[in-house]
Amino acid sequence: MDVAIAGGHGQIALRLSTLLAGQGHTVRSIVRNPDHLDDVRATGASGVLADLESATAAELAEHLTGADAVVFAAGAGPGSTAARKETVDRDGATLLADAAATAGIRRYLLVSATGVDAEPDPARGEVWAAYLRAKKAAEQAVRADRRLDATILRPHLLTDDPGTGKVQLVVPPLDRGEITRDDTAAVLAALLTADHTIGSTLELHSGEITVADAVAALGG
């Protein structure tokens, strides 16, 4: 499989590209900072320079030609403004959808966030609220796009602990929990070929079921 990952230098994306490349897949990691190219190449992926905040869908599509699937794992990141939550987390996701459709790619995985269906906690500030609004808008746009075979994944609180290979993966709602970035990447890799999850929105945290069994169970 040939997979393009938007936000290729993110912590989940780096783990995902390492995993996919190790399985023999072709991976294209899309980054906007040329200083990040060596890091993504070290995972076994090829580096693609493109800025989701300035590229057009046609320009981005040129980098996707021949891919079988795309993964949106980009985000404005900690310390960014509310405006960039919109231009990266929301608009970047829809840009990737348009570019994928232009390149004839249907399979689309969107890394979203838990909590998007609830009212944001005012105590966490406007930037956090903007982040959740952006993620929810991205979900709605991708879910409604009939050009895509999309699966939306909402990881719970992310940690850098070593992965366990065991998770809980269900249709929302799911009580709040934690999930390692390693296990999140493993679930994304499994979802790429799990066509029975197309059209699903899934929540993820640590659990007692292997990744393979958790993904397979969604078809039951």
Low-confidence regions? none
CATH homologous superfamily caption: NAD(P)-binding Rossmann-like Domain
Helix content: 25-40%
| Text of the CATH class | Alpha Beta
User: Distance between termini?
Assistant: 25 Å
**Derived structural class:** alpha/beta
What portion of the residues fall into strands of 2 or more residues? Answer: 15-25%
Largest sheet: number of strands, sense, barrel closure: 9 strands, mixed
Number of strands: 11
Count of helices?
7
**CATH fold group:** Rossmann fold
Order of helices and strands: EHEHEHEHEHEEEEHEEH
Q: Rough shape?
A: globular
**Spatial strand order of the main sheet:** 3-2-1-4-5-6-10-8-11
Gross CATH architecture: 3-Layer(aba) Sandwich
Structure description:
Its EC number is 4.-.-.-. Pfam families: NAD_binding_10. It is an enzyme of class 4 (lyase). Residues 7-194 form the NAD(P)-binding domain. InterPro entries: NAD(P)-bd_dom, NAD(P)-bd_dom_sf. Helix 1 (11-22) packs across helix 6 (181-191) and helix 3 crosses helix 4. The chain has seven helices and eleven strands. The model has no long low-confidence stretch (mean pLDDT 96). The protein is globular and about 40 Å long. A nine-stranded mixed sheet has the order 3-2-1-4-5-6-10-8-11, with helices on both faces. Strands 7-9 form a two-stranded parallel ribbon. It has one domain (2-217): Rossmann fold, CATH 3.40.50. It is of the alpha/beta class and 220 residues long.
Protein traits:
EC 4.-.-.-, lyase activity, 11 strands, two-stranded parallel sheet, NAD(P)-bd_dom, alpha/beta, single chain, 23% strand, globular, Rossmann fold, lyase, 220 residues, NAD(P)-bd_dom_sf
